[in-house]
Specification:
heterodimer; A: 189 residues; mainly alpha; Four Helix Bundle (Hemerythrin (Met), subunit A); 83% helix; elongated; B: 69 residues; 0% strand
C-alpha cells in the first residue's frame, strides 16, 4: 500500500469512527427524550395541555423548513459551493432562533399554567425546555460551522463537522416530530 | 455529471420536505378531528423515517466511506 493509499484509508476509518460516535451520542440522548415522552403519557394520560394550536403548527413548520435548509447546506459544501453552504446555514440558524422565540418567547408566555402548576406544567415545561436547550446548542453548533465556513475550513472532501452539525440538527427535528403530537394533538383538553 | 448529482440531491431534499409538509398537515387535521392516537403515531413514525433515511443518511453508518449511496 502506497503512502497516499494509507493516508486515504486512515481518513476513511476516522470518518467511519466519528460517524459511529455521533450516532451513539444521538442514541444515548434520545433515551432522555423517550423518558420525557413516557412521563407525559404516564402523568397526563389522555389529557393534553391547553396550548395554542396555530402556534404549535407554526413552530413545527419552522423547524421542518430549517431541516430542509441544513440538508441543503450539507449538499452545497459537499459539492464545493461555499456561498450556498453559508447562505443555507445562516437561514437554518435564523429559523432555529425563530423556533426558540415561538416556543420560549410566545408559547411559554401564553400557556395558562406555570412550571409549578401540577403535572401538566411540569411535563410541558420540562419537555419544551429540554428540547429548546438542544435547539440552542444546535444554533451554537451551526454558528461554529458558519464561522469556520467563512474562513474556508471546509471542502468537498473535508467537511465532517458540517455533517455532524447537520445530523445533530435533524435529530432535534426528529425529537420535535414526536413531541408535537404528544403535546398538541393527542388526547383531550 | 457532477452537476447532475448535485441537482438530484437538492431535488431529493425538496421532495422529502414536501412529503414532511404534507404529513404535518395530515397530522394537524387528524389531531383537530380527534382521531385515534395510533394514526398520529403512524404519521410521526413516517416523518421520522423520512428524516432518518434521507436527511440524516443513516445508511452511511453501514457503508464504507466512498461507496455510492
Amino acid at each position: 500500500m502506497s503512502a497516499k493509499e494509507s493516508t486515504l484509508a486512515h481518513a476513511r476509518h476516522k470518518i467511519a469512527t466519528n460517524r459511529l460516535g455521533l450516532w451513539l451520542f444521538i442514541l444515548s440522548d434520545s433515551f432522555v427524550f423517550a423518558a420525557l415522552l413516557v412521563t407525559r403519557f404516564y402523568l397526563l394520560g389522555d389529557k393534553r395541555p391547553h396550548l395554542e394550536q396555530w402556534l404549535g403548527l407554526i413552530v413545527t413548520t419552522v423547524l421542518l423548513i430549517s431541516s430542509f435548509f441544513i440538508n441543503r447546506a450539507e449538499v452545497q459544501i459537499s459539492k464545493g459551493n461555499r456561498k450556498g453552504f453559508l447562505t443555507s446555514t445562516l437561514i437554518t440558524m435564523l429559523l432555529g432562533i425563530a423556533f426558540l422565540v415561538g416556543v420560549v418567547g410566545f408559547e411559554w408566555g401564553l400557556a395558562p399554567f406555570g412550571p409549578g402548576d401540577g403535572a401538566e406544567g411540569a411535563v410541558f415545561y420540562m419537555m419544551t425546555g429540554m428540547h429548546a436547550f438542544h435547539v440552542l446548542t444546535g444554533v451554537i453548533f451551526l454558528f461554529i460551522i458558519y464561522r469556520n465556513g467563512l474562513k474556508g475550513h471546509y471542502s468537498p472532501e473535508k467537511h465532517w463537522a458540517v455533517e455532524a452539525a447537520a445530523n445533530y440538527w435533524h435529530f432535534v427535528d426528529v425529537v420535535w416530530i414526536f413531541f408535537y403530537p404528544a403535546l398538541y394533538l393527542i388526547g383531550r383538553i | 455529471m457532477e452537476q447532475r448529482i448535485k441537482t438530484n440531491e437538492l431535488l431529493r431534499g425538496v421532495r422529502v420536505f414536501i412529503g414532511l409538509a404534507v404529513l404535518t398537515v395530515v397530522e394537524f387535521i387528524l389531531g383537530a378531528q380527534g382521531a385515534a392516537s395510533v394514526f398520529l403515531w403512524i404519521v410521526a413514525l413516517l416523518k421520522a423515517g423520512l428524516v432518518l433515511v434521507y436527511f440524516m443518511h443513516i445508511g452511511r453508518l453501514f457503508r464504507t466511506e466512498g461507496e455510492p449511496e
